[in-house]
Amino acid sequence: MARKRQTPSPHKAHDHSYRLLFSHPDMVADLLRGYINQPWVEQLDFTTLSRAPDNYITDDLRERKDDIIWRVRWRDDERWLYIYLLLEFQSSSDSWMAVRVLTYVGLLYAEIIKAGDLTSAGKLPPVLPIVLYNGNEPWKGLTDISELIDRVPGGLDRYRPSLEYLLLDENAYADTPLPEVRNLVSALFSLENCRSPEDMQQLLERLIDWLALPQQLTLRRHFTIWLKRVLLPAKMDGINFNQLNDLQEINSMLSERVKSWKEDWMERRSAEAREDAERGLLHRQLTRRFGPLDEQTETRLQQATTADLERWADNILDARTLDEVFTTH
Question: 164-212, pLDDT tens digit by residue?
Fold first, then answer.
């Protein structure tokens, strides 16, 4: 008997699509140029941007299938800078991400030592850890491991590790104007956060123009995969996008459906606004009744359906404890 094919979850599809996109040097270069406002970025030789050798990826790191490791040389210099890109598409932030980053960077350094790829001074190359987050709620996790370790009096503080990761929270760019200057990552973030079909069409037309070169065919195809498997299904219900095989075909489809899509879009946004209002009201009621909520409860509220919120709002009238609010009657 043939095994029933399982449909991947939205998060898995998102993770896979982003991994495809950030497997292209153009995307990584635009990420560094557009979102790291530091002078050292101008000293990088982006023509040397390449994936880290496979032998640097240990079995432990290989479990992180959605992480990508790149490296790039400095101009007029043989030294490498490593970019460890962690793709996080959970619905909420990870409070202990800094611990995970410390572990992953340590494993990468162990492999660099094993390979003997040290600098001319016999030291380890720098590693830039970047966490790219796409969850529903703003990221709340502390970005430096040292901030997660309790301080103690005396001389022990000198042994406390310090490693900070660079956080790129897509929520922070929700109100950023549509990109005028070519930057593929800006286009990606703007498409994620666009608020109308017209904005999406405008962005798509710019993306088509920016990816017109023959050598960009694979990246163009990967943007198409992300649009038809992840972004558009989340925006437009009940439409089969599988027959669309190019950005231009997607743009033509949007042009034909823009009126009906706009009506669906506005209806969806209205429903989301009502749900957000119900979630906010329930959050205030729970906090007033039971005090500050723990992270697990916060996550539960963010992932709740409208039916969940309505049931819990009824339960709070009689509940004596927080657990009783979430009890199924």
Answer: 999 999 888 877 776 677 899 999 998 888 877 778 888 899 999 999 9
Name the CA radius of gyration of the chain, rounded.
Answer: 23
What backbone torsions phi and psi does residue 126 show, to the nearest 5 degrees? -70, 150
Please tell me the distance from the alpha carbon of residue 249 to that of residue 225, in angstroms, as a whole number: 12
Q: Which helix (H) or strand (E) holds 130?
A: strand 127-133
Please name the residue that has the structure tokens 């490593």.
82
Q: What is the pLDDT of residue 3?
A: 33
Q: How far apart (Å, rounded) are the C-alpha atoms in residues 223 and 30? A: 15
> Which residue, 125, 174, 170, 209, is CA-closest to 14?
170
DSSP state of 74: E
Largest CA distance in the chain: 71
Q: What is the predicted pLDDT for the residue at 5?
A: 32
Residue 320 has pLDDT above 90, yes or no: no
CA distance 323 to 297: 10
Q: Which residues of 36-55 are buried (b: 16+ CB within 10 A; e: fewer)?
A: eeeeebeebebeebeebeee
In 85-214, alpha helices (H)? 97-115, 184-193, 197-210
Q: How far is CA 93 from the centre of its chain?
A: 10
Residue 198: how many CB atoms within 10 A of its CB? 12
Q: What pTM, to 2 d.p., does this model score?
A: 0.73
Which strands sit side by side in the sheet containing 127-133, from one edge to the other?
Answer: 44-51, 67-74, 80-88, 127-133, 166-169
> Which residues are CB-contacts of 45 (< 8 A; sequence separation ≥ 6)?
72, 73, 74, 75
- Cα separation, 166 vs 85, in Å, equals 10
Per-residue pLDDT tens over the stretch 45-68? 999 999 987 655 555 545 555 689
Cα–Cα distance, 110 to 116 (Å, whole number): 10
Phi, psi torsion values for 83, nearest 5 degrees:
-115, 115
pLDDT at 269: 67
